[in-house]
Amino acid sequence: MSVRVLVTGGTGLVGQGIKYVIDTEPANSPFGKQDGEEWFFVGSSEADLRNAEQTKKLFEKYKPTHVIHLGALVGGLFINMKRKLDFLRDNMLINDNVLHNAHEFKCKKVISCLSTCVYPDKVEYPLDETKIHLGLPHESNFGYAHAKRLVDIQNRAYKDQYGDNFTSAIPTNVFGPHDNYDLESAHVLPALVHRCYLAKKNNTPFVVWGSGKPLRQFIYSRDLAKLFIWQLRNYDDVEPLILSVGEDEEVSIKEVADAVVKALGFKGEYKFDTSKADGQFRKPASNKKLLGLIKDTGFKFTPFDQALQESVEWFLQNYEKARTGKPQ
Ligand code: NAP
Ligand code: GFB
């Protein structure tokens, strides 16, 4: 039986992580490409998924049997705070067009991608798969959060009315090669890597925004990629699945900045700009359900320092073509 996997958002951080694993893991190994599988990694230059006609044409071209739906308007705290409506509307349009076409083209499976920032800001911790809709998300990203929550609702409606096997994954903050380093829209880790690199290059202070106190869990894109591949092949429940490192891996923004300073060998002045927002203080996610499901796969998370070093090396080697916000 031929399996045709369409990866929307295939040109981005997570999409390129999946491409790296499929291209480098031994064929027919637990996370490698299986016989009879074809993988298609697409970005917005092939189809603007906000556009129904273009999305339909994309499905006609690839006739996918399976979809990993990563395509989205994505960004860090500060761009989310500035563009709440764009993050709501663009992602609602993208998600509805992809799920509608996946239904029309009778796809056997769709995994969409949520995020731990969709969770209620005020809820008993740790976050688990049952708490997504138990209250309002944090003010800073309510546009993105509500659009992503709606995907869970859409999946349940497609399953209920048509029996479609549509589900979703909930990663924590992700980092790795091919990340977005544009200081305007970047997430914290790539932003700190880029800003520390510039401080070292220009002999200026390294400035971290906010107090440095908020806590986050970070998953390496190449680890997340393996978990998406496992979920595609082994998980058929409509309930979303948290894909994350453990709660004990929660680190402060200051600890992340310290690790970036070490990884880049920065020796200059290093300070915090507390006039900038801290955003949500923490969003600790439990990966208990995931660990129970993958215990026999031999999967191991990459140690944070090693993953950060590999990401920094990719950034330094690809600075000229990376998304840095400077004119290409
Ligand atoms: P990214 O690096 O910014 O990549 C976004 C991808 O979506 C790119 O391939 C981009 O294509 C595509 N895309 C954007 N707008 C599009 C449009 N209108 N039509 C078609 N394609 C479009 O983002 P990422 O970090 O890999 O995110 C992947 C998924 O993970 C997203 O669903 C995101 O919400 C989720 N997520 C990310 C994080 C994180 O920390 N990064 C955490 C949790 C969840 P082009 O590059 O060709 O424009
Ligand atoms: O990754 P981030 O932008 O988003 O991290 P969230 C924000 C935290 O990092 C805040 C601090 O506490 C900021 O004060 N920070 C320090 C910085 N320096 C910087 C910097 O230069 N850039 C950025 N961006 N932050 C996002 C959601 O929340 O999580 C998104 O807004 C998405 O929608 C993403 O879900 C995964 O972790 O706060």
Structure in a nutshell:
This protein is α/β, with parallel strands linked by helices and 328 residues long.
Task: Give a structural overview.
Pfam families: Epimerase. Belongs to the NAD(P)-dependent epimerase/dehydratase family. Fucose synthase subfamily. Its EC number is 1.1.1.271. It is an enzyme of class 1 (oxidoreductase). The protein has 10 helices and 12 strands. It is globular. α1 packs across α7 (221-234), α2 packs across α4 and α8 packs across α10 (304-317). The protein is an alpha/beta fold. 40% of the residues lie in helices and 15% in strands. The chain has helices spanning 13-24, 52-62, 77-82, 84-104, 142-162, 188-202, 221-234, 253-264, 288-293, 304-317; strands at residues 3-8, 37-42, 66-69, 109-113, 166-171, 173-175, 206-209, 215-216, 218-220, 241-243, 251-252, 270-273. The protein has one domain: Rossmann fold. NADP nicotinamide-adenine-dinucleotide phosphate (NAP) binds at residues 9-15, 43-45, 48-50, 70-74, 94, 113, 115, 171, 173-174, 180, 187.
| Radius of gyration based on Cα positions | 19 Å
CATH topology title = Rossmann fold
**Structurally, how many domains make up the residues?**
1
Strand % is 5-15%
- Main sheet, how many strands, which sense, barrel? 6 strands, parallel
Mean pLDDT rating: 97
CATH top level? Alpha Beta
CATH superfamily, called what? Answer: NAD(P)-binding Rossmann-like Domain
What is the level-2 CATH architecture name? 3-Layer(aba) Sandwich
Task: Point out poorly predicted stretches.
Answer: none
Shape: globular
- Number of helical stretches of at least 4 residues: 10
Instruction: Give helix and strand order, one letter per element, not per position.
Output: EHEHEHHEHEEHEEEHEEHEHH
The end-to-end distance, rounded to whole angstroms, is 43 Å
Number of strands: 12
Helical percentage: 40-55%
> Structural class of the helices, strands and pairings?
alpha/beta
What is the spatial order of strands in the main beta sheet? 2-1-3-4-5-10
Bound molecules: NADP nicotinamide-adenine-dinucleotide phosphate, guanosine-5'-diphosphate-beta-L-fucopyranose
